[in-house]
User: Fold this.
Amino acid sequence: MRELIVVTLVVLLLVGVFFTGSFWQRHIFTSDREALAYYRENHLSKQGYIKGFGNYHIRSFDGGENWVAVRYTDDWKIEILGPVEEIHPGLLGAIQGLGNLFAYVGKNGTINFEQDRRDKDIRMLEEAGFEIKVQTSQP
Assistant:
């Protein structure tokens, strides 16, 4: 009888530990997921290369309202160089123009300068920073 009570108490203790651990793990997972979502929405980073600007690395720590140019130091710390428009004038417009161009191509297909879309194709390319030289055929 005594052994049965001890076994029952051990089983109840293990069940309690399991449910407490499960609850705690779920709480940690939820808070980590919320922290990651907050970080992804508010601590934005863009880097790449655009002709005329060269390599760039910019960050926003307020959800995209203000952007700063950054670089990594030799010991991998982030150095803020200043507001993007002071360091790389026109860069944000070029990045936005490329984003608009990608969205346009995704919706309308390949840029092909067909007569019905020609003006829109040219405008989208120019907004993305491309210089368009249109050659006319001579009779």
